[in-house]
Design goal:
Layout: E1 9-11, E2 14-16, H1 22-34, H2 37-49, E3 56-60, H3 65-76, E4 80-84, H4 93-101, E5 105-107, H5 114-126, E6 131-134, H6 138-146, E7 156-159, H7 162-173, E8 181-183, H8 188-191, H9 194-211, E9 219-223, H10 227-238, E10 242-246, H11 250-258, E11 262-263, H12 266-270, E12 275-278, H13 288-293, E13 298-302, H14 312-318, E14 321-325, E15 328-333, E16 336-341, H15 347-350, H16 357-376, E17 385-386, H17 390-403, H18 413-420
Parallel strand pairs: 2-5, 3-4, 3-6, 4-5, 6-7, 7-8, 8-17, 9-10, 9-12, 10-11, 12-13, 13-16
Antiparallel strand pairs: 1-2, 14-15, 15-16
Length: 426
């Protein structure tokens, strides 16, 4: 039930909602920069060294104020950039307008139709990138399915999120992946920070903006206990909720239990929950059968990348939606009302602003440095899912510590020798 669309502002290299929003977008980008000092340090170095000179970077990312800072960092490094969104509801229209005003090739608006979504992806593909940055793997997938003639000129790609890594590893298993993909999501400074601290806070933010519901005293069912689920569970607990976790992975379920949360199958939790949050990367985690068991007035929200985790397509077949607030739809099923946030798309961007800038700073340091790594290692990487060297990940952590004004200890020569030896024992 996309209610946006309408006439777009169009130019040779952009298609955005309203260019008159550019002023506010520029202010938001400026604010983001002030909170992304680690990335700004990378930008300053890139401006001097131009490590991305000659790179044509095609991007499918959430078009947010933080992403705009990444784009400016890549451009400072000498790259040409073209960008579109990676989710129909995640674009910040003022930011897209500001980027277009600055001359960036950008095609994105909040509430994109499916046709526009893929049309914009193909605009990026027509830019003929030799590096790709993806969030969810739609850009990479489209290139592999319909534009294989471009692959010979692509150095590598970078993937931002868990869902995209799942798809890429499936492509690798099927021998379908034809150029190297750097798993930026697997950086410690991404999935252990962005997924945990970012998703935890921004998911709650999205649900609050769309519902204004009280979390204290509610039974909050978190489906999935990976890094995202851990962050969401901790934040919900901190707001006074009774957290129930559903999982299919035995070890993660054990972690949830030892962290003090109730763990049970979704079928049992369906009857107890007041708020349901999916963060699994899988499909139909909350299915029609579960919805029929739910209480009156429950709230359902998804914070996984695609709108597949809550089976909204089947729900639409048996119940009509009524929009009761921006980004909140009411469905009647079995005589009960259930509420779905953000059309079951990732709620933290559909109904809020995504992760805080401080968190995205380390994630996007990973993207910028992954592009630099790819250029430096052109022709040396196999068409597989690869991870950045640990020293790059540690460098990002150091940059963030510096931005926070935090100093840490260093190993002495004696300690280094001890850790590298095996002779000394009891």
């Amino acid at each position: 039930m996309v209610i946006f669309g309408g006439f777009m502002d169009k130019g040779k290299n952009y298609e955005v909602k309203d260019m008159k929003l550019a002023g506010q977008g520029s202010l938001n980008i400026e604010l983001a920069e002030s909170r992304m000092q680690a990335l700004m340090n990378v930008k300053q170095r890139f401006a001097k060294e131009k490590p991305l000179k000659g790179a044509r970077i095609g991007m499918a990312l959430h078009v947010t104020k933080e992403t705009a800072v990444l784009v400016s960092t890549l451009i400072a490094g000498g790259a040409e950039v073209a960008i579109t969104g990676c989710n129909p509801l995640s674009t910040q229209d003022d930011v897209a307008a500001a980027m277009a005003e600055e001359g960036t090739k950008v095609w994105a608006y909040k509430g994109e139709t499916k046709d526009d979504y893929y049309r914009y992806i193909n605009y990026v593909i027509n830019f003929k990138p030799n590096l790709t940055i993806d969030d969810g793997c739609d850009l990479v997938s489209e290139i592999h399915k319909k534009h294989t003639h471009l692959i010979k000129d692509i150095i590598a790609g970078c993937e931002e999120t868990t869902t995209g890594i799942i798809r890429l590893k499936a492509m690798e298993r099927d021998s379908a992946l034809k150029y190297p993909m750097i798993a930026v999501n697997d950086n410690k400074t991404k999935h252990l920070l962005d997924n945990f601290y970012g998703t935890g806070q921004s998911t709650i933010d999205g649900i609050l903006r769309s519902t204004n519901i009280l979390f204290a005293g509610k039974n909050v069912v978190v489906c999935g206990y990976g890094s995202c689920g851990k962050g969401v569970s901790l934040r919900a607990k901190g707001m006074g909720s009774n957290v129930i976790v559903t999982e299919v992975d035995p070890f993660r379920a054990l972690q949830a239990a030892l962290d003090g949360f109730r763990v049970m199958p979704i079928k049992e939790a369906a009857e107890m929950g007041d708020i349901f949050i999916t963060v699994t990367g899988n499909k139909n985690v909350v299915d029609i059968a579960h919805m029929k068991l739910m209480k009156e007035g429950v709230v359902l929200a998804n914070s996984g990348h695609f709108d597949a985790e809550i089976n909204i397509n089947e729900l639409k077949k048996i119940a009509k939606a009524r929009r009761v607030r921006p980004f909140l739809d009411e469905y009647s099923i079995n005589g009960k009302k259930i509420f779905i946030c953000g059309e079951a798309r990732l709620v933290n961007l559909a109904a809020a602003e995504g992760h805080p800038s401080e968190v995205m700073s380390t994630s996007f340091c990973g993207q910028a440095l992954a592009c630099e790594y790819a250029v430096k290692n052109k022709g040396k990487m196999a068409p597989k899912v690869i991870q950045l060297p640990e020293e790059i990940d540690n460098h990002i952590a150091k940059l963030q510590l510096e931005a926070m004004g935090i100093n840490i200890d260093k190993l002495t020569a004696e300690q280094k020798k001890y850790l590298e030896s095996w002779q000394e024992g009891t």
